[in-house]
Amino acid sequence: PGPKDFGEPPGELAVNDFAYSGVWTITDEDATAGDRAGIDLQFSARRAFLVLGSPDEDRDVEVMLDGKPISADDAGADVKGGVVTVGPQKLYSLVDLPKAGEHRLSLRFDEGVKGYAFTFG
């Protein structure tokens, strides 16, 4: 718990592993993005979701898939132009692929965004 600088984004990740980068403040309930905050996740699924919130103003999260900005065809319903605009806390749809497969999801956060839990489908 507390603030920590996790450094640069990680290299390789095993399937179902994720890693923070940049500065995050971690509590028992959530993680709040600070300077250069990111999350990288190696997943095997068709869809990826994340509960996010930005309690006092809208903030953005950049979404990349396999090292490139996510395409409109692969983006979840809440992603517009490779970006999720986060407002009130809810489950945000980040990835919606034609079929399940193994991929790397990279998220880059504006300071102040709160993250809670990933889910997959």
Low-confidence stretches: none
Number of H- or I-type helical stretches: 0
Q: Whole-Å distance between the termini? A: 29 Å
- How much strand content do the residues show? over 45%
- Choose one word for the global shape: globular
Main β-sheet: number of strands, strand sense, barrel status?
A: 11 strands, antiparallel
Q: What percentage of residues falls in helices of 4 or more residues?
A: under 10%
Q: What's the overall average pLDDT, rounded? A: 97
H/E element sequence: EEEEEEEEEEE
Short note summarizing the structure:
With 121 residues, the chain is an all-beta fold. It has no helices and eleven strands.
Describe the structure.
The chain is mainly beta. The protein is 0% helix and 60% strand. Strands 1, 2, 3, 4, 5, 6, 7, 8, 9, 10 and 11 form an 11-stranded antiparallel sheet that branches. The mean pLDDT is 97.
Give me some keywords for this one.
single chain, 121 residues, mainly beta
Walk me through the topology.
Blueprint: E1 2-5, E2 18-21, E3 23-26, E4 31-33, E5 38-53, E6 59-65, E7 68-69, E8 79-80, E9 83-86, E10 90-109, E11 114-120
Antiparallel strand pairs: 1-3, 2-5, 3-4, 4-11, 5-10, 5-11, 6-7, 6-9, 6-10, 8-9
